[in-house]
Amino acid sequence: MSDYINCFGCGAESLNIEGECHKYMLASPGCWMMFTEIMEREYSDLRYWKGHQFTVDAYACQHVGKKEDKRAVNSVNIHLASLYGVFEQELSISEMPTLRSQFSQYYKGKGILEWLEPPQSFGELTVFELWDNEDADLHYEIAERWAKSVWSSWSHQHKTIAKLVDRTKS
Ligand SMILES: [Zn+2]
After folding, report:
1. Over the stretch 51-86, which tens digit does the pLDDT of each residue have?
2. pTM above 0.90, yes or no
3. Where are the domains of the chain?
4. How far is the CA of 59 from the centre of ligand 1 (A)?
C-alpha cells in the first residue's frame, strides 16, 4: 500500500489512510483530514481566519458528491453562488456568508436547484497547497488563489449560476 494517493474527489495528493469523511462532500479520508486541520487553524488564529470563506467554498466545489444526494447538489450550487458573488460581483469576503444563506433560503423547498455537471478538471490548486503552507501571512492569498482557480474551472456553469443568483434578487 502506498503512503499517498490522489483524492478521488479533487485529485489532491493526500495521505493514504482510513478514516472519517464528510457525509456528502465525498473525499478521500486523507484529503478530508487536511481540510479539518485547516479548519482548526482558521478557527484558532485570526490570520488564518481571514481566508476561511474561500477555503470552504473552494473545498465544497471540488468535492461534488453524488448526483442523487440532494444535500450534495444544493451544496455545490450554494458554494458556487458564493464564488460568483466574490469574483464576479465584487462582493467582499465578509459578505459571502450572507449571500450563501440568502441563496439557500430562497431556494429552500422549491426543488429548483439541479445537479451541475462538474468540469473535467477542478484546476491546478487543491486543499494540499493551502494545508502545506506554514506561513500564516500567506494563507489568505493562497486560499483566494485556490478559490479563484476553482471558480474558473467551473466556467461552463458560470451563466447558470449567475441566473440563479440574479433570481434571488428580483
Ligand atoms: Zn479531495
Report:
1. 999 999 999 999 999 999 999 999 999 999 999 999
2. yes
3. 46-167
4. 8
Q: Name beta bridge partners: 48.
A: none
CA 29 to CA 53: how far, in whole Å? 22
The strand ranges marked E within the chain are: 4-6, 13-15
The answer to whether the CB of 168 falls within 8 A of the CB of 102 is yes
Name the band, by pLDDT with cuts 50, 70 and 90, for residue 2.
confident
- Quick count: other Cβ atoms within 10 Å of Cβ 6? 16
Which range (18-22, 86-90, 94-98, 134-138) has the least confidence? 18-22
What is the CA(128)–ligand 1 centre distance, in A? 9
CA of residue 57 relative to chain centroid, distance: 3
| Cα 33 to ligand 1 centre (Å) | 10
Residue-wise DSSP of 117-155 = PPPS---S--HHHHHH---HHHHHHHHHHHHHHHHHHTG
